[in-house]
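Bench notes, afternoon.
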Amino acid sequence: MELEIRKIVTITEETYIEGFKKADKPVRVSAALAVIKNPYAGKYVEDLLPLIKACSEQLGELLPKKALEALGVTGQEVEGYGKGALVGLDGEVEHGSAIIHTLTFGNPFRSLCGDAETLLPSAEKRGAAGSSLDLAIKHKMDPKIRSHHMTFETRIPDAPRNDEIVIAAVLTTSGRAHPRIGSLHKELEGVFPS
């Protein structure tokens, strides 16, 4: 089995004003999405290992590289990240999950992001072409840093086709524009009473 990519879409957003106030620095987010053929569309297959071997490692390297290029930064400059899979209607959510929930996908992704340590937050679902996928983002080194908890909506008008999967990587160079709720660390220390 070989990875078959129909197209790669990169989406970059820079937010300068949030909540009617100018940001100290723009919030920059980029997502790279690969539209791939789903060889298991329309049938049940017990063993998903061939799909994992064909797709996980390649996409775990390719997509964060594309997002880094779009942002014009190094992995050290990335602060937050996430991943996702949108499976076409003739596939199973499990097909997308098989690709993104592996160390062969996550380890190269984290390595490219400056040896990040946290698990990549994820979003997976099935949908028709043009469906949105809200990619969860968290801090790459500490999931308790709430300023980096956010989502980034993506959509490709002609994907996924029924026999395709969209695999996504999302990166950000900062957290939200005006974070004010504090970290979970502070709350656990009793600074913010429950």
